[in-house]
């Protein structure tokens, strides 16, 4: 009988560290923020996390890109500052409550930002701008489009145009200065959980603050059916037009614009996610004639806060690893594994351990709870699972988490 190969724990830890970015910071009123991102099998981690302090509070956000990391990277660098400025302006000029200012600014700000990706990045580059006749046969000549937008990523115009065709989810939380309120805007399928200690302090009460905007949410399926009456189902095989998992996102303007523009203009901003063959089979043949099929309107949830609360934002890669968990167990596990030492985990942790196939790593002085959360969900104390995570034999999604101790 052959002897199984010896697992070098230190080598595994080093390999994991190379694929995992992490940081920790202390922000307003001594709140602590921990970030971690695990790059699995993709050339670049398409998840981006960010936090930003403003005059009125703290914004934390997570962007999970698809088709590339271009828009998630760009949005993480630009959108939070725009939203914070908009909140301040709306609150100062409209005479409304902070809650109304935050809610309105998050919704309208995200919608306007998405619109600007298309208008400023593509449409306004053409001489006649929005008056351009996109059905004109000249635009079927790729060279004519490239003369306007460029054709290499080294061209600034071309790179700006790329932001309109690739996509990203957006999960944005805003916490007021007093740390009494949190508002979470959801666009896509990332998760936001709030953990609050029970009255006796012995357990966690966990609330989901995010919505599921994907093809597995019956409410989203119903919304799309109502928005496109008389057409075949928009969601097929759990995906928008059989392709995109999320039903709301930034970018993806090929699924938001009329067919001639989506096919002949956006379709040549290579490598475009959708080419002529896709439109023939998934759009024209079934009879889909009324875009947009992807929304950029977020849903916003508000919740009150108290000292000792924990807020966690995580990408859908983490949720996938917890796919065998009930919703209740998933929420409680995420909060507990980020917050607790092993001796204070709820009794359900034995069931979690069985489902995941591993024990849990204990917290240690100076460790990063966001990183430990990813480790405990993906492999814990199981070295074989850790080796699989470090060098996967199959496709793995990127996993990111942001843990905020209030």
Automatic annotation (TrEMBL):
Residues of the PPM-type phosphatase domain: 32-406
Gene3D superfamilies: PPM-type phosphatase domain (3.60.40.10)
TM segment ranges: none
Alphabetized GO MF terms: protein serine/threonine phosphatase activity
Pfam family, one: PP2C
SUPFAM superfamilies linked to this entry: PP2C-like
UniProt cross-references to PANTHER family, sorted A to Z: GM14286P, PROTEIN PHOSPHATASE 2C
Protein name: Phosphatase 2C-like domain-containing protein
Source organism phylogeny: Eukaryota, Fungi, Dikarya, Basidiomycota, Agaricomycotina
């Amino acid at each position: 009988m052959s002897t199984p190969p010896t697992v070098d724990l230190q080598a595994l830890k080093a390999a994991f560290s190379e694929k995992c970015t992490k940081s920790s910071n202390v922000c307003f009123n001594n709140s602590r923020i921990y970030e971690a991102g695990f790059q699995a099998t993709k050339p670049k981690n398409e998840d981006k996390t960010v936090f930003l302090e403003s005059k009125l509070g703290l914004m934390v956000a997570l962007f999970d890109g698809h088709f590339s990391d271009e828009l998630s990277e760009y949005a993480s660098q630009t959108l939070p500052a725009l939203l914070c400025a908009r909140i301040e302006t709306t609150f100062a000029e409209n005479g409304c409550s902070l809650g109304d200012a935050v809610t309105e600014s998050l919704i309208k700000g995200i919608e306007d930002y998405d619109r600007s990706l298309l208008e400023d990045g593509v449409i306004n580059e053409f001489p006649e701008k929005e008056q351009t006749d996109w059905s004109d046969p000249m635009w079927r000549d790729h060279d004519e489009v490239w003369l306007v937008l460029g054709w290499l990523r080294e061209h600034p115009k071309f790179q700006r145009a790329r932001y309109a065709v690739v996509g990203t989810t957006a999960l944005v939380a805003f916490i007021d200065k007093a740390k009494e309120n949190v508002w979470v805007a959801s666009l896509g399928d990332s998760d936001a959980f709030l953990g609050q200690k029970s009255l006796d302090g012995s357990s966690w009460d966990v609330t989901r603050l995010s919505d599921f905007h994907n093809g597995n949410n019956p409410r989203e399926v119903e919304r799309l059916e109502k928005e496109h009456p008389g057409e075949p189902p928009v969601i097929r095989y759990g995906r928008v037009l059989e392709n995109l998992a999320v039903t709301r996102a930034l970018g993806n303007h090929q699924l938001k614009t009329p067919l001639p523009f989506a096919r002949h203009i956006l379709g040549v901003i290579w490598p475009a996610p959708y080419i002529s063959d896709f439109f023939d089979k998934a759009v024209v043949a079934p009879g889909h004639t009324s875009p947009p099929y992807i929304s950029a309107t977020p849903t916003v949830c508000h919740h009150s806060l108290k000292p000792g609360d924990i807020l966690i934002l995580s990408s859908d890669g983490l949720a996938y690893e917890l796919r065998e968990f009930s919703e209740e167990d998933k929420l409680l596990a995420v909060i507990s594994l980020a917050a607790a030492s092993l001796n204070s985990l709820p009794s359900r942790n034995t069931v979690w351990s069985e489902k995941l196939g591993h024990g849990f790593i204990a917290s240690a002085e100076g460790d990063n709870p966001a990183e430990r959360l990813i480790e405990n969900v993906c492999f814990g104390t199981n070295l074989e699972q850790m080796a699989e995570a470090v060098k996967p034999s199959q496709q793995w999604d990127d996993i990111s988490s942001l843990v905020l101790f209030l």
